Batch of 2 targets.
Target 1
Amino acid sequence: MIPILTIDGPSGVGKGTVARIVAQKQGWHLLDSGAIYRAFALAVQNKRVDITDTDALEKIAQKLDLEFKPTADGELLNVYLDGKEVSSILRTEQIGEIASKIATVSAVRTLLLKRQQAFAKPPGLVADGRDMGTVVFVNAAFKVFLTASVTERANRRLKQLQKQGHPGIMAQVLAEVERRDRRDCSRQHAPLKPAKDCLIIDTSELSIDEVVTQVMKIIKV
Ligand code: C5P
């Protein structure tokens, strides 16, 4: 059995950072499932496909040429779409918005499922997303669901965008986070919700280190 830790939660809750730190500490592989949905969104945009054309979306999902390679310092994973490095484009709100729309198409989710499950390799995996503990790795040994107030998450998102050199307006970021929450929670297939057997951590008042400490405790049991 490969040990798997799933970290699910809404946009801007800090899942990505916590997942990366825990994976490094454990020496485990890392799956940023949002990056797969975002890369898919970029492919859809590049091919100028109408996002309501589910047949065309399915074709793109079947042929998605996607690779994750460690950065020179080994700290992060760069994402390559059709051989081109696209990591920073993927982080934009525009791509996040398209990703969340096409993530509601159940055929797309099914086609991307195996690609995500293939990340489970020894010595272990930390997988972050929306449905890691409920669908993709339903038998994972360790499951966490991170939450935080919507204002706090919008604040964090704004700071992250500014750090990456993208301008951001709080009211706009807040509206985007709320819209994304609504879509992610209300979709029929794999909606965002805590797994029955997960530990829920409200991170609103916690630092990243404090969240990591709580998460590490459940892996050690
Ligand atoms: O986590 P991130 O913001 O990168 O994800 C982008 C979008 O991809 C989310 O808003 C969500 O709609 C979708 N997603 C998903 N299931 C996942 C990961 C991401 O539906 N496991």
Target 2
Amino acid sequence: MSDTNGTGGTGGTGGSGGTHKAGAANDTPRAGGTSGGLDAALFTAWAEEIAAAVRADRDRLTALDSAIGDADHGANLDRGFTAVAEALAGGRPDTPGALLSLVGNTLIRKVGGASGPLYGMAFREAGKALGDAPTVSLADLDEALAAGLAGIRKLGSATEGDKTMVDALAPALRALTQAVQEGQDPAEAVGAAAEAALAGAQATISMQARKGRASYLGPRSVGHEDPGAASTALIVRALHAAVSRTAGAPGETSRWAPEGPA
Ligand code: ADP
Ligand code: MG
């Protein structure tokens, strides 16, 4: 449970600022400008969607982890995101960055194993990248998720093909970056990312694990979907659900308009 096998320790991430340039390159204004449209309510909805999705799929995630790990991934994430939902019920941060930091800190506190520190790091780095802007743009979100992925890579030193959560998150981010560059609307863009994450998770079935507990199995890890990649696909799908719901809500469409009515 506590063996992170290559996650490089769970200590504090320090205060290394300026991480938001880790991945996506674009010329759009930074968070805090008037182009932003994603607010703390949207990020709160995302966290709540994740909690519900993890709860619904807890047994599937645990079954995946029982095949190539120690059968705790569903329980680990359910514990973590239940704690997130409880924290949010007691008071919501009022910026997207603070919300993501709360998620990250809660996961680090509540979830053991490899996935707690890795997801915790990812949400913390993403939150740090968003700073204290009250609303952020889709391009800002893309940069923040790139910072999250960079955090996972730094802590776990996994690359694509190692059969980990990176194999779902990296293609999701590529799809999101491309959609942002093409000017797609948020629901479409995040939908493309969710599809890519799912395909990435499914592609782990044929991989041999080179990181984490599953790597102990060597060739016997082939033929099973990686549980962390599967949960990453859930997390990105939850973002799509939150964005679609918010964008589609009556009277809410102006949320996405750069110069919509106040
Ligand atoms: P544990 O393996 O400690 O029991 P979990 O079962 O909660 O922790 O999480 C396992 C998942 O963590 C794996 O399926 C994999 O996706 C991810 N993982 C493990 N090690 C690494 C790593 N070094 N880098 C990235 N992801 C990793
Ligand atoms: Mg496990």
